[in-house]
From TrEMBL:
This is Thiol methyltransferase 1A. GO terms for molecular function: S-adenosylmethionine-dependent methyltransferase activity. The keyword Iron does not apply. It comes from Oryctolagus cuniculus (Rabbit). The chain crosses the membrane at residues 6-31. InterPro entries: Methyltransf_11 (IPR013216), SAM-dependent_MTases_sf (IPR029063), Thiol_S-MT (IPR052356). Residues 75-172 form the Methyltransferase type domain. The keyword Transmembrane applies.
Length: 244
């Protein structure tokens, strides 16, 4: 099986050779950072349509973590185009963090379309280093389709715990590695190197639930599902929340 994966990876690399050449020349990352937000605008609409019931279920308990004022202070890490805004409760104060500044114009559009929220700021920073966000300053942190592409999952979860107030919650929805005995996992392994470059650092074979289980949360509620998505490669999902 390992030999078959190696051979098929070589075939995929040959087909994607222009992308690898651009990466070698240092051009691909520049290009990808600019086109990726346009892709996410289209993809997010489809993803929200197919995952709407799961997102409503997941975010239905957000308001339970509001502070004494009754207003929920929420930090979204890897906010992208603001595709989750429609699922947040009215009056929610939202701060967004993303390492790609090219998402900002799409984020502003989402803010204009979601007047039920109180948008506070957009911070350009990686989730592993959110020093602009104060310790214990938010009730909830949200990240969806982010842990697949961060450089250091353990570090981003440490940062999540740092910015959360005591008793605050971390909500997540992530695509993950398929079960190892499946054909889906086989093709995830074959396509992962090219997928990583094409989709701005996204990895198909991450077992993100392990990082969540190791993190210093007092409570973790996590479910594995086969998401109702068109792309079978990203159907394996985890979602849930963890309490600090």
């Amino acid at each position: 099986m390992a030999i078959a994966i190696f051979i098929l990876r070589l075939v995929v690399c040959a087909l994607a050779s222009p992308m690898y050449v651009l990466h070698f020349l240092g051009v691909w990352n520049w290009f990808c950072k600019r086109w990726f937000p346009y892709f996410m605008v289209k993809f997010s609409v489809i993803y929200n349509e197919q995952m709407a019931s799961k997102k409503r279920e997941l975010f239905s308990t957000l308001q339970e973590f509001a502070g004494p004022s009754g207003k929920l202070s929420l930090l979204e890490v890897g906010c992208g185009t603001g595709t989750n805004f429609k699922f947040y409760p009215p009056g929610c104060r939202v701060t967004c963090v993303d390492p790609n500044p090219n998402f900002e114009k799409f984020l502003i559009k989402s803010v204009a379309e979601n007047r039920h929220l109180q948008f506070e700021q957009f911070v350009v920073a990686p989730g592993e280093n959110m020093h602009q966000v104060a310790d214990g300053s938010v009730d909830v942190v949200v990240c969806t389709l982010v842990l697949c592409s961060v450089k250091n999952q353990e570090q981003i979860l440490r940062e999540v715990c740092r910015v959360l107030r005591p008793g605050g919650a971390f909500y997540f929805m992530e695509h993950v590695s398929a079960e190892r005995s499946t054909w889906n996992y086989f093709w995830q392994q074959v396509l992962d190197p090219a997928w990583f470059l094409l989709f701005d650092g996204c990895e198909l074979t991450r077992e993100s639930w392990k990082a969540l289980e190791r993190a210093s949360f007092s409570k973790l509620k996590l479910q594995h599902i086969q998401a109702p998505l068109s792309w079978e490669l990203v159907r394996p999902h985890i979602y849930g929340y963890a309490v600090k």
